[in-house]
Amino acid sequence: MPHRVCPWWIGYFLASPLRKLRQDPRAILSPYVREGMLVLEPGPGMGFFTLELARLAGPAGRVVAVDVQPKMLNALRRRATRRGLAERIETRLAAGEGLPVADLAGRVDFALAFAMVHEVPDQDRFFADVAAALKPGAAALLAEPAGHVSAGDFAATLGTAAAHRLDVTDRPVIAGSHAATLVKRA
C-alpha cells in the first residue's frame, strides 16, 4: 500500500457538512462514546469526527487529536472554537516516529482511526501506540476507505492490530468503508 498523506487542502472537502448525508458522525460514534470519556483520534484532519467526539464526551471529557499536518490542526482548532468545543479538544502534532501519546498510557477509553491508517508508514508502531494508550477492555473503531484500501489490505491491517492485543469484536457498516470495532485484550 502506498503511504501518502492526504494533502491538507482536501481537508476542506472532508469536513464538508454534505458528508453527513453519507457518514453521520453522531450515528457512527454514539455507540462508543459517553460523557466523561478520554478519546484519542489520530489523523483528525480538520475535525469532521472530532467535533462530534467532543460533544459526546461532554464537558467532563476530552479528545486528544493527533495529526502530522499543522494546517489540519489549525483548521480543527478554529472550527472547535467557533462551535464552543475548543476546551474539550487537545491537539498534538506528530513530528517524529509514532504518536506523541506516552502520557496517555492505559488511560484512553476510546480511539477512532478513520480513513487514515493506510497513510501510516509503520502500522506496527501505530497499533502499538494506540494499544498502549487504551485501557484494557477499551474499544477502537477502525475504518478505511474502500476506494483506497482493498479488502485484503484491510484484513492485513486487522492482523497487525491483533498482534497488539486489539481484537475484532464487530464489523459495523459504514458507507464507503471497511470497518471494524477492536477491543484491547487485558
Notable traits:
6 helices; 7 strands; 186 residues; Rossmann fold; seven-stranded mixed β-sheet; alpha/beta; globular
> What summary fits the major beta sheet?
7 strands, mixed
Count up the domains: 1
Please give the count of helices: 6
Give the CATH class.
Alpha Beta
As laid out across the biggest beta sheet, the strand order is 3-2-1-4-5-7-6
Can you tell me the residue ranges where pLDDT is under 50 for at least 5 consecutive residues? none
What's the name of the CATH homologous superfamily?
A: Vaccinia Virus protein VP39
CATH hierarchy: architecture: 3-Layer(aba) Sandwich
Following the backbone from N to C, one meets helices and strands in this order, namely: HHEHEHEEHEHEE
Strand percentage: 25-35%
Helix/strand-derived category reads alpha/beta
How many angstroms does the end-to-end distance come to? 31 Å
How many strands appear in the DSSP assignment?
A: 7
Structure description:
The chain has a single domain (23-184), classed as 3-Layer(aba) Sandwich (Rossmann fold). The N and C termini lie far apart (31 Å). The longest helix is centred in the middle third of the chain and has 13 residues, at 70-82. It has helices at residues 11-14, 25-29, 50-57, 70-82, 123-133, 151-162, and strands spanning 38-42, 62-67, 89-93, 108-114, 134-145, 166-170, 177-184. It has a seven-stranded mixed sheet, sandwiched between helices. The chain is built from six helices and seven strands; from the N terminus they run H-H-E-H-E-H-E-E-H-E-H-E-E. The chain has 186 residues and is of the alpha/beta class.
